[in-house]
Structure formats: C-alpha cells, structure tokens
Amino acid sequence: MEVKVVLCLCILLHYRPLASSYSGKLLYSVYTVIMEYDIDTRNVTVLVEVGSSFVLAMDYNYKNRFIYFPRYDTGDIVRFAYPSKNRTLQTVVQTDPYPLGIAVDSTNEHIYWVAPAYTNALSRCNLDGSNLTLLTTLSVPYVVRLDVINRWMYIVKAYIGVMKLRFDLADQQMIVNITSSTIIHCMGIGIYLC
Question: Count of alpha carbons within 13 Å of 4, Cβ hemisphere only?
C-alpha cells in the first residue's frame, strides 16, 4: 500500500538578533486541513478545515494579516484572518478551473496565481479580489513565487523547468531546465539578512 502526503508549508518566524533559536509558528497543510505548529511549545493546532478541496499552496499577507490559498476543486481563492480566533473563510475571487500556486504581494496589494489545467494561466487581482487580470498563458505553470524588491516572478513550469519574468512580463528567462520525467512541486526564494 502506497501512502501519499500532500504537504504545504508557510513559515512565520520572528528573528531574534541576540538569540540562537527561532520563535514563531509553522503553518502547514495536510490534505484538507491547515495546521499551526508552535515552535516554542511544540503544540499543534488545527486552524481551518477546508472541506473536500486539497490545500496545495498558501501565502501570508503580512500587512493585513490574512492567509490566502487557492481551492483547487472549487476554482476560487479564499482567505482567513491570522492570527485570529475568527477563522471564517472569505472568498476573495473566482478563478480559472483548478488554481494551484499562489503568491501574495503585500507591498503592491496583489495576489498572483497559476492554473495549469485547461487555461495554463498566470493571473493577478487586488487583495480584495477586484481588478482580475489574466497576465499571460504559460506551458503548465505549477508554482509562483515573488521577489517584490527586485520585481521578479519565478514560475515553475511542470516537467519543463523554472523561469523568471519581470512583473510587467518583460525579460522572460528560463533559469533551470529539467528532464520531462521530473516535476518540481514547490519552490521558495531565499532572503538573506546581513
């Protein structure tokens, strides 16, 4: 019997310059549940159960304190306040069928997402769901991450590789090529503190 676990992580850590340890929360999903792990106490708390739709990606809006995630099966992006006792899901925007990757740009107040099934779309809207815009279509976009400071988007194209493109869609480059038997399921962007 083969067991598969779908896992998505969103790390919220607080930097302590004089301490050698981390303090904070680790948010992750297992199938249809978003959970919180407290690094200090080691307690695990169920934050949200999302019904029948897997949580395959999520991102955090640091300014307004919301967790955003696409619901693959229902074709929408939802959010809930975090941290908060009221974890009611709010639908932000109806998307193309089967949205997968998501990235929140707190600085410019946008949400970006990819939908690899049917449309191969890279789309964007405002944090409140307004101004829905299809930016471009790509070959099987799977994951999207943002470098807001340098204004780059990084996109995993399943079975093809990783590309980067400017927020205005100029200067598109393949930066990693992969073989057709390989798929990248997640990606992060490192930010180094000096």
Answer: 3
